[in-house]
Amino acid sequence: MRYVSSNSSGLVIKNHDLHPPEKDEVQIEVSYASLNYADILGIEGRYHAKTANFTPGFDCVGYIKRVSENIKDFHIGEKVAAIKQGGTFAEQVNINKNQVFKLKNNLCSRAVAANISNGVTAYDLVFHVTHIKPNDQVFIYGASGGVGSLLVQFCKYQGAHVTALTKSNKKQYVESLGADHLILRDRPANDTDKLYDRIFNPIGGESIEQDLLRLSMYGHLITYGHSSFQAGYLNTEIIHSKNLSILGYSSGSIMNDYPIKLRKTVHDVMNLVYKDKISTPIDSIYSMDEMEYAFEKMKNNRHIGKILIKMDT
Ligand SMILES: NC(=O)c1ccc[n+]([C@@H]2O[C@H](COP(=O)([O-])OP(=O)(O)OC[C@H]3O[C@@H](n4cnc5c(N)ncnc54)[C@H](OP(=O)(O)O)[C@@H]3O)[C@@H](O)[C@H]2O)c1
């Protein structure tokens, strides 16, 4: 079977015989996987300090092809989704059953792929990591992206006032999500004095220090990524004097350490997709052979919503 790997010469497609699923594993025939910013970090050796020879792919949608002998609760042919820390950009993948979720047969595979990893992250951030209340002033970075698009939708659902950061060519899209106020990062800032109760920051670097100044008393800074490729550092004097809370989140770490904890979140998110209550637009769909274009597009922020990779031919 074919799978994608990255090494010092870039992204390459390799072939190997996948071994049968081991104890507690199922084998999935992958239909779609989504491209996440973590894949960009991963192939550059910057995702959670991993280095070369990384197989990208943090999620997939497909069908059960085989199950290990001890598995009784999954069956061949069932439609499933899975979340995994790397490795789903492959025609088939073996995954621990705790990271695999059954899907209704009539749930669109593309819609699942476009909402699963980003949906779990955005849902956990808004409903479990911090709690968004009506009229909270919320600031959302990367509002046109996979996680950002859903953060806007969830915060608006909670009745918050959303200020969203994006670029001017994506303004119309982010407005259509319901954002109340936009800041365009390719135009001069127009919010310099405003204070926020909650800031969702996946950027890291210098933005973190700036965010401490932009938080109101008792505010929460929720850090969940480092798209700037740099860690951020904190001034504790500001934190204690303003009674701020700094909250961190990684769905990947939870999926590794305690996958059962994400089961309810996946269920809730898939229910919202099924009922058409949330949606992330699909920017484009690439085949495995077109992978380089997909990565290049995301790295240069030329996408809106999600990019999917189609694994079956
Ligand atoms: N902790 C977790 O569990 C978890 C899970 C999923 C993702 N993440 C993190 O969340 C972030 C977003 O992931 P994603 O897959 O949604 O990515 P995405 O679709 O690429 O969206 C991110 C958007 O952020 C904006 N952006 C990029 N670099 C920026 C910068 N330096 N300053 C300000 N805005 C910037 C771009 O939008 P504009 O061009 O419109 O500004 C970009 O489209 C990544 O850092 C990722 O690693 C974390």
Query: Could you name the CATH homologous superfamily of the largest domain?
Result: NAD(P)-binding Rossmann-like Domain
Give the cofactors and ligands: NADP nicotinamide-adenine-dinucleotide phosphate
Please outline the major beta sheet.
7 strands, mixed
As a percent range, the share of helical residues equals 25-40%
Let me know the average pLDDT.
94
Determine the number of helices (DSSP H or I, runs of at least 4 residues): 9
Give a short overview.
This protein has helices at 37-43, 109-129, 146-157, 171-176, 206-214, 236-241, 251-257, 260-274, 291-299, and strands at residues 2-7, 10-15, 25-35, 59-67, 79-83, 92-96, 100-102, 137-140, 161-166, 181-184, 196-201, 215-223, 245-248, 282-287, 306-310.
Q: Characteristics of this structure?
A:
single chain; 313 residues; alpha/beta; Quinone Oxidoreductase, Chain A, domain 1; Rossmann fold; seven-stranded mixed β-sheet; six-stranded parallel β-sheet; 9 helices; binds NADP nicotinamide-adenine-dinucleotide phosphate
Topology of this structure?
Elements: E1 2-7, E2 10-15, E3 25-35, H1 37-43, E4 59-67, E5 79-83, E6 92-96, E7 100-102, H2 109-129, E8 137-140, H3 146-157, E9 161-166, H4 171-176, E10 181-184, E11 196-201, H5 206-214, E12 215-223, H6 236-241, E13 245-248, H7 251-257, H8 260-274, E14 282-287, H9 291-299, E15 306-310
Parallel strand pairs: 8-9, 8-11, 9-10, 11-12, 12-13, 14-15
Antiparallel strand pairs: 1-2, 3-4, 3-6, 3-15, 4-5, 5-7
The structure holds NADP nicotinamide-adenine-dinucleotide phosphate.
